[in-house]
Structure formats: C-alpha cells, structure tokens
Amino acid sequence: MGNFVCIEISDDQTLDRIIRCLRGKGYIRNLKKNLRALQRKMEDLRATQHELQNRVAREVETPHRQSLEAVQVWLSRVERIDIQFNGLLSTSPAELQKLCFCGLCSKNVSSSYKYGEKVFLLLEEVKILESEGNFKVVTELTPTSGVEERPTQPTVGQDRMLEKAWNRLMEDEVGIMGLHGMGGVGKTTLFKKINNKFAEIADRFDVVIWVVVSQGAKISKLQEDIAEKLHLCDELWKNKNESDRAADIHRVLKGKIFVLMLDDIWEKVDLEAIGVPFPTRENGCKVAFTTRSRDVCGQMGDLEPMEVKCLKWNEAWELFQNKVGGKTLSSDIVEQAKKVAKKCRGLPLALNVIGEKMAAKTTIQEWEHAVDVLTKSAAKFSDMQNKILPILKFSYDSLVDEPMKLCFLYCALFPEDYKISKENLIDYWICEGFIGEDDQDIKDAINQGYEILGTLTRAHLVMEANKHEVVMHDVVREMALWIASDLGKQREAFVVQTRVGLCEIPKVKDWEAMRRMSLMNNNIEEINCASKCSELTTLFLQNNRLKNLSGEFIQSMQKLIVLDLSKNYDFSELPEQISELASLQFLDLSYTSIQQLPVNFQELKMLTHLNLTSTRRLCSISGMSKLSSLRILKLLDSKVHGDVSLVKELQLLEHLQVLTITISMELGLMLISDDKKLAKCITGLNILGFQDKPCNISLLLSMENLRELRVVNSQVSEINTDIKCRESETYSSVLLNPTRPCLTNLSKVNIFDCNGVKDLTWLLFAPNLVSLDITDLKELEEIINKEKATNLTGITPFQKLELLSLQNAPKLESIYWSPLPFPFLKRISALDCPNLRKLPLNATSVPRIGEFSISMHPREKKNWLGWEDKDTQNRFFPSFHRGRRV
C-alpha cells in the first residue's frame, strides 16, 4: 500500500486559516521560494550598482563631465530598495518560524500574509530595477553655467551707448541685436562690457557664449568655438561632419536659455547650419553681434541695428589726455596736443595709439613735428602703418570686387572733411570705367553708382553728409591713400595735395610713375612745367586760382581720362593741345571764364562728359555735334543759350542722354519739346528772359527726366488743367493727364522776378518736389488755386517737399486753401509777404516737429498769423524760435 498523509482538522477556525493560506497569490505558501529569489536578485542588483558607481566615478574624473540624471535616480532607487531588503531579511527568521504544514500555512496568517506580500512586491521591483540598469552611457558633457567676463580697459563716452544697447537687448521682443560702426570705433570694447553685464543677471541665462568670428570664418570653426564652450570637443566630436556637429550643438542648446555673442562678423552667420536654435520671445534666447557692415545687420535679421559712432570732441579730448598723461601736457604743449587729437576725428583706435605714442614727447618741437606729419602724410606717423591702417584695411578687403575698391580709393582724391557731390563722383567713376558699359543707358550706370555709394556707406568707408553728398573720415582717407600708393611703396602713383596752400605744382621725383593727381582747393595760378606725365589718367585742378595752363604740360598726358578745371574763376583759355588728348572722356570747365573752345576741340572723339555750367563768358560751342561720343552735356547758366542753331547741333548727338541748358527764346524751347529724344535728355532747365512772349509751361511736360527748373525774369503762361493731351508734330503722346502727374522727376523749382504769374497750380504735376523757391513774384496771389485744382482729382501736393521759400510776394494770400500733410517738410521761409495770413498746417501736418523751423520777416508777423486751432498754434509756435532769416 502507498504512503499517505492524514490531517485531522479539529474545528472550523483551523479550516478557515488553511483556506486563507492556500488562496490568493501564494504570499505564504511561496514565501520561502520568494525570499531565496529576492536574495539572489539583490546580490545581482548590488553587483550592477557597484559596477555602475565605478563607471561614473571613473568618467566624472574627466573635466566638465557629470553623471546622467537618470543614472543618479536609478542608484538612489537601488539604495532605497537595499534598505527595504535589509529590513525584511532581518525579520525573516521569525517570520519563517511562523510557518506550518510544510510551509503551506502559518500560525499567524495575518502576519505571514503581510510579510509575504512585501517580499513578493520587493522582488518585482528589484526585477524592474535590474532591467532598467543596463546603461550604455552614464555621464554627459554639460555647459559651464554663468558668464566668462572679458577684460576691458577704462573707456570714455560709452556709458550712454552701453545702457541703450543693453536695454534694447533685454527687451522681450528683441532676439537678435547688431552693433555696427567703422573699424576702430570701439564696437568690441562695448561688446565686452555688454558680455560682462550678464554676470549681474547670471540666474536669467543658462550660458553666455562669446565667439570671435572675424573675416572668412567657416562654419566648422564657429562650431568648434561654440562646442568648446559647451564642452563637446572630445575625440568623437572631432571626427564628426558639420551636420552631426550642428545636431550636437542644437541638442545641448535647445533646452537652455542662452546668449550667443558674435564679435566682428563680416557676412551673414547661418545659425541653423551651425546648430544654434533661432532666438524667439518664447525661448528667451539672444544673439548679439558686431560688424562693420550695416548690410550684414539686415541679413542677420536686425532691421534697426545700433550704430557705434566716433566720440564727440570733448570725449575724444578726454580720452587723448588720459593716454598722454597730465605730466606730458604742459601748458605750452596743450594747443599742439589738441591739434593732434583733432586729427583723429574722434576715432578711439587712433586716439589710443597716437596718444600712447605721444605720451613720452615732452618738447613743443616734437608735438609740432607730429602735427606736421599728420597733416601732410599721416601714414608716415609712427605706428600708423602698424597699428591703425591695417586694422581699417579689413573693411577695404571685404569689398566684393575690384571696381568697388577702385570707387572707394577714388574718394581719397578729395580734401579732408570735403563734402563730395554724389552726382559728380559717379560721373567720374563712369568715365574712369569703374562702372557702366559703353553701350549702357547712363541712368543704369548712375543707379549702379548709387548702389556702390550705399554699400560703401553701410560699410562705414564713407559717411552720408546729406542727401546729395558724402564725406570720408580722415583716418579712413589716410588708409585709402596708403592703399592707393601700394601701402606706401609707390607714393608718386597717387599724388594728393589738397587744401595745403600750394601756389605751384609740387615737385615730383618720377612724373612718369604718376597715375592720379589731385591738387584741388589750392592757390595755383600758373602751370608752366613741361614734365612728362605719360601714365597720368586723372588730374584734379578744381578750385584753384588758375589763369594759365601750359600746352606742353597737357600734351604729355596722352592717357588722361579725367580733367577737372572747374571753379578756376579767372581761367579764360584752354590750350590748343587739349585737342590731342585722345583718351579724354571727362572735362569740367564749369565756373570758369572760358570764352571759347579750341578750334580742334571736336577732335576729342572719346569725350563723353562735358560740363560748361556757369561759363558766363563762353560765346559759342559751334561744332559740338562732332563730339560723337558725348553722353552728358551741362550748359546750365552758360552764356551759350539753346537757340535754334544749337538745338539742331544737339539733335545730331547720337549718344546724348543728359542735357542741362538755358533757353531764352520760345522757338528753342519748342524744338526741344517736340524732339522726343532730346526732351528726354533734359535734366536741368533755365528759362531766362521770356519778356516779349510768355513762356508756355506746358512745353515742359514732355521733359520726363527734368529734375531742376529755374524760371527767371520771364512772363509765364499757366498750364490749362482742362487739356488732356497735346499732339506733337514728331510724335503723339499724352502730355497732360489730369489724374496722373507728368513731371515726376522734378525735385527743385526756382522762380525769380516773373510777371503775370497769379498762381502756380501747375506744380501739382510735380508730385516729388523737394525744394520750392519763389522770389519777386509781384502778382502772385496763391500757390495752388482751388478752382483750377478741382480738375486734378486725387492729387495731394507737396508730399516730398522739404523747403518752401517765399520772398517778396506782396499779393500772396494763400499757399493752399486747407491744411496739408507735410511728411518731410523741414522749413518754411516767408519774407516780405505781408498778405500771407495763414499757413496750410494743422496739428498733424509735420510729424518731425523737432527738425522743423519757420522764418518770417518782419519777425512780429508770427503774431498776426491765423491758425487752424489752438493745438496747431501751440505745436508750431516754438518753430519760430528755431527759424532764422535767409
């Protein structure tokens, strides 16, 4: 018979206890098995824990590495589990003693059940921990928090700019901010101060990254610089391509509130290609940069960048004194020291370098010598070629092509602080061949010239003096002269001695090496030398006292392209030899006393630009039609007027595109107006002495490129605004359309001493008028007549007007019958206009009120004016204090 077990159950309570032990998850019956399994798993878990702790300890010994947060959390959980396990293990003997019936039941079912449940649950948690403990990576590289402060020297005059730049960068709406300015102006110094201010708010940003970009920087180099700050540059990083590096940088920065400081950028920095998240209001990140180019600011996304400008004189003088030192600046040296400081024109780089160089100079003679050198040839000053000019030259090197560089260097031919006419400068460039093509429309070449001027201005190589002129900073000019002379090695190739009081041609060692010479703004009366200038292409002699120009001197210049003799007021005769200059393209004789042109003048077959403006003794230019290449002819205010014979010669000039001229007879005006090609050439017109028969202003409407109009001592008939078109004998066109202005390029109108003019309503056809000057119009009653203007619907006059000058118009009562908006108006001058009782202004007429002035004579007339309302009076009354009589 087989073995068997017999269990005798004595009562119902015992039976109930057994049932409870057998049912459920077997916390009691499996207790021994679960406890043994838990002990084994804990041994394995502890081994994994120790191994992981050792790996972390080894890796964190490497600088800038820290344990992964997930690893730390796992280790912490293991420690908590270990404590729980030890607690359970310590009570296990007692709990096992409670078991009975071969471990299937317990003498204390409730206690064993709870203990068994804890063992089971802990075992499950250990299994989970074990499965989660397989870490392939246990540490990570982390960015250094805070700011690395940059060393800076004490500065002068930057506090206000620092505050302004800082406040703008901290605006929530500003994610990208650019600082632009010329080389050596102090952008980097200011930038370092901005960087250091982040230390004051270290808790706001996780990381501030400073990168010096410089010219020609590549994406890979920028990535390396950023990665170094983020501590990503390990061996693995070095073997990655740009795309993978960008991903790494982006991974680290995307969860950070960062500031990226990019110093000295020369072109757009592609943030996406580098891996830098784009700064937004939402992520709170910032990207700031410095550059010498205003264009780069726009490309980077800052459309309102901040310009770092040169110091004002009092600030410049303070900085210079700081560098020189008080001991050196004795009372007898101070005046010379101020002259030296002024040569720096507020440029901190020059003030620092020259100030330090002069710090040990204690005699008046040394300072006088410094002034002399800086005046005559600043490039020769000690340290100029080592510490100043090369730094500025980077801006020149960044220009995109050779023609643009030549255009820039050409600006150095003018004197210090000289306001260079944009129009004249572009004409020079065209003739020199820097811009434009021979068969190109002159307007396209001029537009190209303005584009180059814009680029040079935004690169801080030239500065905008006003709408029509640019000027060069003196130190930048010295840099240009240094470059033009092959970094000082060929000084005689580019001879510039302007405004230095010369009374004769300077001595030159090697005339044949000379390419360009500028002697403008001196006192030279005669040039009699016979030096051979066989390579000379440019000669500036304007604004001297020249009376005699040697034919032999001119004859030697067979490569001469540009000759400017303007504003030599007593110069009356050109040498015959000028006709032999086969390469001559530009000749300016404006404001001279020239009486006639040489007999063979028409042999100048290459001549494209001829300026005879204000040659009031010039009797004739017959034979002009033989100048077959002529494109620009300026005759405004010349004694030569546009009579029939001249107009017929002008009609033969096949390539003529720009013409300014004085007309004193209606037939000449009609001939030009009826010749579509010739009318299109007119950019400047002077109507003079139409007394016998009124000048028909309607004839001007075919001159679509007319920019400047002067009407003097003439009777003028008005334009009939009811006329819709006029048929010409040579072509059929709409000359007058009541809904569309015709004289869209007309910007300047001067009307003097004209009879019979009661109104100037025809000015409605000139919507882009900038300057209106009216003098001695005795019959003028109103500028715009309301009744006549009703035919011209939809036209609001004077939207571009900047200057309105009215003088000696005794019957003038009205400019316009109601208030007008004047978005650009800067000045109204009304002198001796006793019946003008109201100006067409209201409280919103002139937005830039701080730049606006009103001049009236007699001065007390301002008290007689009527105003639209009290607000208008209060707004404009202070403008009288800014005005002055002209």
UniProtKB/TrEMBL annotation:
Family the entry assigns: Belongs to the disease resistance NB-LRR family.
NB-ARC domain mapped to chain residues: 159-329
Domain called Disease resistance R13L4/SHOC-2-like LRR: residue spans: 514-862
A molecular function (GO) term: ATP binding
GO BP terms: defense response
Coiled-coil residues: 28-62
Alphabetized UniProt keyword annotations: ATP-binding, Coiled coil, Leucine-rich repeat, Nucleotide-binding, Plant defense, Repeat
Name under which the protein is recorded: Disease resistance protein
Organism: Cardamine amara subsp. amara
Top-level taxon of the source organism: Eukaryota
Disease resistance protein winged helix domain: residues covered: 413-480
